[in-house]
Structures are given as structure tokens and as C-alpha cells.
Design a protein that fits this description.
The structure holds two protein chains of two kinds. By secondary structure, chain A is α/β, with parallel strands linked by helices. Chain A contains eight helices and 13 strands. In chain A, strand 6, helix 5 and strand 7 (184-189) form a beta-alpha-beta unit. In chain A, helix 4 packs parallel to helix 5 (165-180). The chains are: A alpha/beta, B mainly alpha.
């Protein structure tokens, strides 16, 4: 017996009225899938996530989500007002909107939140204000808020944007382990470095799907040039593709790395 | 002491004091959402828009709550319609619609006179203008607002903090926002004659801002803001009687004094603090257990 995919986009077009944002995009998300959508700003990555969240109807084509699939969304860190007066525990509890009318958490909810925060290594920060967290801790708090919904599919918008190298690897490592627990993960990024080492599957997007597959197949100069509109060089490091900008002539006449 | 207690023998004062304390608490409660959502200007605009309805309903002899309520709703729809036109933002739409409605109210009352509360009472509030019926209305709106906040606590919090994620997480954000606007409109309507059109926005904003300076917890902010609003209403109304100054003016001035005192005692540390932890790189490797 075949199982329906968790989510499926079939020849989807999206047009907000000022030209196409996505054209003939087809994508399948299976159980346990771990995929990164890469592309430059304005390539349609966030639109694609909104389709998977069912918050946007395509202009043409079909979007299917398996019935009963719990979807959790983790936004970019920059989109949140970090001065908002909430503690880490209050923030995580927000996504428990169903099943309880009373404002304060039940004993079971408190135990569950403590368990998720402990699991993500921030159990001792539950009563801290959200602004007191480091970038990595803020990202882990958002993951805790998503996990408390017990999702089958987790969507993340630029989870490595605006964080330092150490935090980026930490977040990707964390997602890797959550994926190993059976949660399908789709994330967007315009940052290629580090993706090849952590993600088993990449989709290069520039209004349409330019290429899709394992990093070794996708991260090649021709695909990257078509996706990003710039010539990028791909080096191999310990068998993993690493993308670097090609050498460009310096205005002063010398050749230096950009 | 006897001088302070003297006004309590007058029914009009007890009515006014009850109304001011309730109005302060109500505005303090609702104001938390208004401030955290950056909607202070909407509160200000809506109170001015409702003034047009206040003037029209008192002249025509229609029930104040019905007339001004419908007028407020029509103003909100007009703002929405104007804001949808290209090149006109929501802030400009609020500016145009609400000030036009306010000006119409002033024109009607100036030309035809009011059969209800005086022009000054509507603008700046009056303890003389508080009837038992208005207290009943205030109690009803306060109970309704508390019920909404109590039963929709997490949805309101989530939609205020992160509407996009709230929407994905099962919160009906549009419906929650509409409910909040309904509570705000009712709160403005119920407090208008006590605090006055021009000053309602301050009673929405000041207690919430002071509470924000005192706590980092949303739950505590709700409680603190309500208590500060009620206290400002109580103290301001007493001051209004003894100094013979309009009630709304004294309630707002009391709130402003509390704001300045909190600010000078270091309240902004909580507002403007950029923790060194926020810029810290967390070196600890993390594994999922």
C-alpha cells in the first residue's frame, strides 16, 4: 500500500498581480524528508513555504497536504519584536492554543514545556525574558515552540540568517537530530555554505525549480549560475561541495577574492 | 482627613469615582494589547471618530451607545475603505476619517447645542456627567473585556506577538483582531463621558507603558496595567474634585506623574536593555537528547 506524501505541490504558479513569483513548481515532501530550498532574495522561497502552510492559494496548480498533518512554522529571528514582554516559557506555551481555556498552564503543560526546553538544552532559561537569550538560544526557543505542537512537518524560514557561524552549525546540527526523530523538515536559505554538510536534499529555486537532489548533484557551477545569476565556483572539501565566489577583477587592477 | 472624605457623602462623586476607577482599570487592561501592537494611534483616532457619533446621537435623541457605536463602526469601515486605495496609507486614512468625524461632531454641537452632556464634558470628562446607567454600562463592558482576555488569553497573546506563526498554529488571527477591536471600541464608548474624547488615548497608553517598564512578563503586565489604571482613575478623580479641574485631565495627569516617577527610577532599563547575553555566542555544543 502506498502512502500519500506529507505535502505535494504540482505545477504550481503564483502571481501576486505584478508578475509571476513561482512558475510550474512541483515538489514532494515525504515522511522524514529533510530539504533546503536555496535561492537568492525574491526567488520565491517564502512564497513556497506559505503554500506548504496553506496560507496562500496558488494561481494555478495544486497543493496537497496529507489530512491531519500537524505543521509547525519557525519564522526568521529578525521578524520578531524581542522587546515583547514574554518569558521563554510563555513564548513556548503560546502555540498550545487548543484544548485549554484558562490562561495559566496546567501541570501537564508545564511538565511538557520543561521537557522540550531540557531536550533543546535551554531548560534553565524558562523564566528568562526572550531578549536575554543569545541568537542560538532564541532559535532553540522557537524550535521548542514548534515542537510543543508535535509536528510531522516543520517549516523554517531562513533559520541560519543573521546568526554567526558557530550558531549556524549548531542550528543545522539540531535540525539534523530532530529529523532523525522522524520530523520532516523544509527550510529556506540564501546561504549555501554549511548546507551541503547538513542537508541531504537541496532544491535550487529561482521562480521555478532549477535543480533538485542531493547537494553533490545540485551544487554545480551551471545550476548555481542559473539560480543566483552569478558565477560561483564549487570546491570539494572532505568530499563535500563548498561554494565560493569566483575571482573577480579588482577595481584597482589586481585580482582578489570577493 | 475629613476634607478628603467629605466628597464621599455626595452620590454624584461616588458615582464618578466608581466610574473613573472602573474606566481606568478597563483602559489599563485593553491598553496592554494596544501598546504592544503599536496601535496607540488607532485608539486616539477611534475616540475622536466616536465623538461625531456622540454629538449626532445626543442631538437626535438616539441612545448614546447605539448611535456612537454605529458611528464608530462606520468610521472603522471608512478607514478601511480609504486605506485600501493605493497611495493612501492606513495612518493617513485614520487621520482623515477620524478628524473629519470629530470636526463634524464639534460643528453639530456648536451649531445646535447638546441635549446630553456638555461639550466640555465630552471633550475632557466630567464627574457630573456620570449616571447610574453609565456605571452599569461600564461594569458590563469591563466584565466582557475580562471574559475575552481570560478565555482568549493565549490566542490574543500569540496574535499580538507573532501573528504569522499564530495563524499557522491554529489561531484565527483575523477573528481575534476583530474581537480586540470590538473590545477597544466598547471600552472607548463606555469611558468617553468620564475621561473625555481627547484624553481616552492617554488612559489606554500610560498604564500599559508604566507596567511594561516594571515587568518582563506578559501576565504580570496585564495585572499591573489594570491596577495602575484603576489607581490613576481613583486618585485622578479625587484630585479633580478638590482642584475643580475636569476629571479626564486629572486622571491623565496622575498617570503622567506615575510615568515620570517610574522613568526616573530606572524603568527604562527594562525597556531599552540590550543584554550582553543577546550578543553572546553560545559555545556549548547542543545535542538532542
Amino acid at each position: 500500500m502506498t502512502v500519500d506524501p506529507l505535502a505535494e505541490l504540482e505545477r504550481v504558479d503564483v502571481d501576486y498581480g505584478s508578475g509571476p513569483v513561482l512558475e510550474r513548481v512541483s515538489l514532494t515532501v515525504e515522511d522524514g524528508h529533510f530539504s533546503g530550498i536555496v535561492g537568492p532574495s525574491g526567488s520565491g522561497k517564502t512564497t513556497l513555504l506559505r503554500l506548504l502552510m496553506r496560507k496562500l492559494r496558488p494561481t494555478r496548480g495544486t497543493v496537497r497536504l496529507r489530512a491531519g498533518t500537524a505543521v509547525a512554522y519557525v519564522p526568521q529571528l529578525e521578524t520578531v519584536n524581542w522587546d515583547f514582554p514574554v518569558t521563554v516559557r510563555e513564548c513556548v506555551l503560546m502555540s498550545r492554543t487548543a484544548g485549554r481555556v484558562l490562561p495559566w498552564p496546567s501541570r501537564e503543560e508545564r511538565r511538557e514545556v520543561a521537557g522540550v526546553l531540557d531536550r533543546l538544552g535551554i531548560g534553565d532559561l524558562a523564566d528568562r525574558h526572550i531578549r536575554e537569550l543569545s541568537g542560538g538560544q532564541q532559535q532553540r526557543m522557537f524550535l521548542a515552540r514548534a515542537l510543543i505542537r508535535r509536528p510531522r512537518l516543520m517549516l523554517l524560514d531562513e533559520p541560519t540568517s543573521g546568526v554567526d557561524v558557530s550558531t549556524r552549525h549548531e542550528v543545522l546540527h539540531l535540525l539534523d537530530e530532530l529529523n532523525a526523530d522522524g520530523i520532516a523538515i523544509v527550510l529556506t536559505t540564501h546561504d549555501l555554505n554549511g548546507m551541503a554538510a547538513h542537508l541531504p536534499h537541496l532544491v535550487c529555486l529561482r521562480r521555478r525549480v532549477v535543480a533538485s537532489g542531493p547537494p553533490a548533484q545540485v551544487l554545480v557551477p551551471s545550476v548555481l549560475e542559473e539560480t543566483f545569476g552569478a558565477r560561483l565556483e564549487v570546491l570539494q572539501h572532505l568530499g563535500i561541495p563548498v561554494v565560493v565566489d569566483e575571482y573577480a577583477p579588482h577595481p584597482m587592477g589586481q585580482e582578489v577574492a570577493r | 482627613m475629613s476634607r478628603l472624605l467629605a466628597p464621599f457623602q455626595f452620590e454624584f462623586f461616588v458615582n464618578g469615582l466608581t466610574a473613573a476607577t472602573l474606566a481606568g482599570a478597563l483602559c489599563g487592561l485593553v491598553g496592554v494589547y494596544i501598546v504592544l501592537r503599536g496601535m496607540s494611534y488607532i485608539g486616539h483616532g477611534l475616540s475622536h471618530a466616536i465623538f461625531g457619533g456622540f454629538a449626532a446621537s445626543t442631538l437626535v435623541g438616539v441612545n448614546f451607545f447605539l448611535g456612537a457605536g454605529l458611528w464608530g463602526l462606520a468610521s472603522a469601515l471608512a478607514i478601511n475603505a480609504v486605506a485600501r486605495r493605493r497611495r493612501i496609507g492606513a495612518d493617513a486614512a485614520i487621520g482623515v476619517v477620524t478628524t473629519a468625524s470629530f470636526a463634524l461632531g464639534v460643528a453639530l454641537l456648536s451649531k445646535l447645542g447638546s441635549r446630553g452632556p456638555s461639550f466640555d464634558a465630552a471633550l475632557f470628562g466630567s464627574i457630573l456627567g456620570v449616571s447610574r446607567g453609565q456605571i452599569v454600562a461600564l461594569v458590563a463592558v469591563t466584565v466582557f473585556a475580562c471574559l475575552v482576555v481570560f478565555t482568549r488569553y493565549r490566542a490574543l497573546l500569540f496574535a499580538s506577538f507573532d501573528p504569522e506563526v499564530a495563524d499557522v498554529s491554529g489561531v484565527r488571527v483575523a477573528r481575534t483582531d476583530a474581537l480586540l477591536m470590538l473590545v477597544l471600541s466598547m471600552a472607548i464608548l463606555a469611558t468617553l463621558t468620564v475621561i473625555g474624547v481627547t484624553l481616552v488615548a492617554a488612559t489606554l497608553v500610560i498604564p500599559a507603558v508604566v507596567a511594561r517598564m516594571l515587568t518582563d512578563s506578559f501576565g504580570r503586565m496585564l495585572g499591573l496595567s489594570t491596577a495602575i489604571g484603576a489607581a490613576c482613575g481613583f486618585v485622578g478623580m479625587n484630585a479633580s474634585y478638590h482642584l475643580d479641574v475636569p476629571s479626564g485631565t486629572m486622571i491623565v495627569l496622575t498617570g503622567a506623574a506615575v510615568f515620570v516617577a517610574t522613568l526616573s527610577l530606572g524603568g527604562t532599563r527594562r525597556l531599552g536593555r540590550v543584554s550582553s547575553a543577546a550578543r553572546r555566542i553560545d559555545p556549548a555544543p547542543v545535542t538532542v537528547r
